[in-house]
């Protein structure tokens, strides 16, 4: 049974079909990528699966649970994490605190009545936070206010917040956008580490084709809200529909 | 709106070991407790009888007690705006609502000060638990205006339909019996302590004040403190890490209403009176001004704001010539703070002191 | 009094109250909707309008600093009609000044900051007016053509001035609607309401259309100040007294929507007039109750536009 499955997912805004009958599935331990030209509906698909948008019709199941109608926090609690396209962080908190927020949500659920206990006393939260800081190599900046980080570090912090929720399935929305080649390389090796050591399943949206073809097990191609091709990187590279809709149109 | 400096923040000042120790202790709960105790011990004397200050610039005894009561109110309000980022223009509902509940209980059941305040707080809590079901779906301006609308509804209801119990625009005289039937709070404290603090009523209020400071500090150091700030900073992100944002906002609202209710209950015990103006939106406006003027998001800031506000209202107001300009000057100061100096008066003080320190570090 | 007569009288009370709120709420709503600027200081324009009208039209025995420096009575004494014409023009200019000095620097700040700063500015105006003009209230002396009842055959008598107030509001509503719908400037503002980001990218936001719409909204608020002052009296507290219901109407109707704001004002006017009949002391409160009910059912107002505050 696939870990995540959408069936005939459709989302309309007014008269416009942003998602048109999208059926995809993701298996445990896979890295699948979603590509497509700008405005193809990539972000809409992620937002619909993670509970930000309500689909017009169709089904979404994750590990046997129906996700339709659940709030984003409920979906996150099930083990679906995400990182955002923009650096969606908590700007005035420190780097450590940014990660702590997610660590609390993971260790203690969506809501707990613990407003009279010190947060220093939560060892599991501290360990998780330290572990994430180490993985993402931000421990030297742990005390810095998040807003003051350079852009690339903000993006990595954003991914770190997603990781701190301990997801089984992680949506990564253009994790390397705006990064320098060095930072991109760092992110790619992080993705490999997540797959190998963290047993994570990753759903990646990316513009950088080198990254896509390098790390993906399978690739979905979205155009005008509909899936036009699915397959391994080699299959996608040679798929005429993809070439026409996407690769041929614009040299990225 | 600023977050308080983080406790982990490293200062690169190897030269001054004392300052490092200071940085370590100044955010501990014990330090906050000691500071609160020292503050309540010394404040009334400094406020009302500081030597070398001309008499007409000194405050009077009651004003010191009012500072503590309003200080509690401002801390409650700040908990919502400064910590969680929700601007309520209707906090008068907790203040005035609790004041009426306290007064009615004292007049009709038992006039014991402690019990009456507890009843008032329970009423404020009730309001704080019910209203979020309307309020918490609303954003910024909508939230601010609808909190105001709810408080104004209560104001108009207390003014006429319920005039028979509330006394309408004439207000309501309030009974107060000795605490537990034993200690008359209006009596002077004997000896040197009397010179410092005046009556037992001051100690009664000060106990609540210290309790609230300790409570608020603990909440800030709990997971809630962090999560409230996270909700303020980025609500969407907070829900995508798996936090039930609605419930945390609800919690913040209830805590804020609870603390505001304590202040509302203490006031009729202090003044033997309560009236509809304590439900009016101008009172909500006052607490907004005090808190923001003093410095949002900190513990000391709102209290400093209250001191300045009440000093202008109670003392500067009475001076010749310039007295009439007290509210205008406060309005100007408030506007300047929200426009250009979001950290408020307390932020100015702390930034001056850190500038002095960094200059010393250069040498 | 016949049932027909009392219903018509009720209708005009409701419509005249709605008219005053509408003239204030329109400018507030459009600026909020298109520029994402929430302006409590809009109430200061209403306040200014009321006092400008007094000074232009009459010779008023003000108190405060004016009296202390021997300037009272003060005024041009040009009469009511002149005041009605001059006031909106003066407040139009005041609106331009407000846009340049207050609104423009705040456009990029969060709504919360805007709300707090403009709250402070309105408070400064209120206290300033109290100090300058004295803390007492003032009244408009309306000439014969604007007072007394009108006899409508077959129906009965209706307050003449209330009819004029309603007609004036209708004319100005029509003018604004035409401006909005049929001019390029109006198009730019509408585009701004629907997609602020796009408009910003195109650089329209800082341009003249918004300055103009801000100033028109100001002029309307100034006119409303004079009309409201003539109906309910003038004092320095009237700015807050009006801007809070006006804000309630704007968010209830749907920020940025002329239609929504008009419906919000009408709802408020009718509820106000109806409750006045049975329970006068709760008339103002009824507007708040109405808003609470509406926003509980529709959290973004009756005609939601854009994503304000989301």
TrEMBL record, chain A:
It comes from the Archaea. Keywords: Amino-acid transport, ATP-binding, Nucleotide-binding, Transport. Residues 4-249 form the ABC transporter domain. One of its GO terms (biological process) is D-alanine transmembrane transport. It comes from Halorubrum lipolyticum DSM 21995. SUPFAM superfamilies: P-loop containing nucleoside triphosphate hydrolases. This is Probable branched-chain amino acid transport ATP-binding protein LivG. The keyword Transport applies. The keyword Ribonucleoprotein does not apply. GO terms for cellular component: plasma membrane. One of its GO terms (molecular function) is L-valine transmembrane transporter activity. Belongs to the ABC transporter superfamily. Coiled coil: none annotated. Probable component of a branched-chain amino-acid transport system. Gene3D superfamilies: P-loop containing nucleotide triphosphate hydrolases.
UniProtKB/TrEMBL annotation, chain B:
GO terms for molecular function: branched-chain amino acid transmembrane transporter activity. It is a multi-pass membrane protein. Pfam families: BPD_transp_2. The chain crosses the membrane at residues 31-50, 62-81, 93-111, 117-136, 141-158, 200-219, 250-267, 287-312, 324-341. One of its GO terms (cellular component) is plasma membrane. Keywords: Cell membrane, Membrane, Transmembrane, Transmembrane helix. Signal peptide: none annotated. It is found in: Cell membrane. InterPro entries: ABC_transp_permease, LivM-like. PANTHER family: ABC TRANSPORTER ATP-BINDING PROTEIN, HIGH-AFFINITY BRANCHED-CHAIN AMINO ACID TRANSPORT SYSTEM PERMEASE. This is Branched-chain amino acid ABC transporter permease. It comes from Halorubrum lipolyticum DSM 21995.
From TrEMBL, chain C:
GO terms for biological process: amino acid transport. Keywords: Amino-acid transport, Cell membrane, Membrane, Transmembrane, Transmembrane helix, Transport. Pfam families: BPD_transp_2. It is a multi-pass membrane protein. GO terms for cellular component: plasma membrane. The keyword Membrane applies. The keyword Transmembrane helix applies. It comes from the Archaea. It is found in: Cell membrane. The chain crosses the membrane at residues 12-32, 44-66, 78-103, 115-133, 161-180, 210-232, 238-255, 262-279. One of its GO terms (molecular function) is transmembrane transporter activity. Belongs to the binding-protein-dependent transport system permease family. LivHM subfamily. This is Branched-chain amino acid ABC transporter permease.
